[in-house]
Amino acid sequence: MPLRSTTLSLMLSLTLLLGCAQEKETPEANAVPKDSRKAESKKVPVGPNIIFEVDGESRKVWVSAEVCRTMGPLEQFLCRKGTKEHESVLFADIDARDLHKALILARGEPGSPVSFRPEYKAATGSVIRITLVYEKDGKKQTGPAQNWIRDTKSGKALNHDWVFAGSRFVPDPLDKEKPPIYLANEGDVICVSNFESALLDLPVESSKQNAEVQFEAFTENIPPDGTKVAVCLEVVPPKTKSP
Fold first, then answer.
1. pLDDT value of position 12
2. Measuring CA to CA, which of 53, 157, 175, 211 is 20 to 30 A from 237?
3. Model confidence pLDDT, tens digit, residues 146-169
4. Cβ–Cβ < 8 Å for 233, 100
5. What is the helix, strand, coil percentage profile of the chain, to 5?
6. Where do the domains of the chain lie?
7. CB pairs under 8 A, 24+ apart, for 14-22?
């Protein structure tokens, strides 16, 4: 089934759940820190380890993740479990298609992934703000994802937000009868190097060639491997143009 049709069906189901059902605790709900849960907010699992939260006009997507790399060059910030942990700060046991759906429910609009031919064209889509919530020495810590990524040229934290590029589907090369493959599930969920398969990418040129990788783990700011992290994704409303 096409992703957009699936999303429409999911939106109808969520409307019923958010309006009528009592909130239930689920294993996936652990993605949201308990002390950040408000009584009036509604949270619904969109897929394993992915929660969609509505609180008035606020819409957030929460992903339960884990630290897997604290030093060295990076191509991803968050990858799918079992794919590119060797070049990503975080991994999450998710289906990237579920994250795509959740971002649409949060009023995100997918744009287009990066293209390199005939010339470089940056990824487009809704701007996504990413905040990290975790515990350190028994205390809750909250901060922007950019603080865990260092620009190797400036030595400073990443100063760009991500955009909802949306990845893309391709036919299964081994079996044309199977459903198409969603490329972000190969690992490129939240990228810091440009990939045509990225679900979220940076809207600036960032090479994935080893000798030219521009970003690395900001080791001093990242908690130890194995730390559980709640990743909060919010769609940044587009700026209103002056008349």
1. 41
2. 157
3. 999 999 999 999 999 999 999 999
4. no
5. 20, 35, 45
6. 42-236
7. 14/44, 14/46, 14/52, 14/105, 17/42, 17/44, 18/42, 18/44, 18/54
Tokens of 112: 């287009």
Kindly state the DSSP code that residue 114 receives in the 8-state scheme.
-
The conformation of residue 49, written as its DSSP 8-state character, comes to T
Q: Parallel, antiparallel, or unpaired: how do β-strands 190-191 and 58-67 relate?
A: unpaired
Structure tokens at 206: 């960032």
Beta-ladder partners of 64 = 230
Of 192, 196, 185, nearest to 114 (Cα)?
Answer: 196
62 membership: H or E segment, kind and range: strand 58-67
Q: For the chain, state the CA radius of gyration.
A: 18
Residues 42, 90 contacting (CB under 8 angstroms): no
Predicted confidence (pLDDT) per residue in 62-106, tens digit = 999 999 999 999 999 999 999 999 999 999 999 999 999 999 999
174: number of Cβ within 10 Å: 7
- Token pair of 118 as six digits: 């005939």
Q: Give the rounded distance of the alpha carbon of 187 from its chain centre.
A: 11
Whole-angstrom CA distances from 159 to 40, 100, 122, 162 are 34, 24, 16, 10
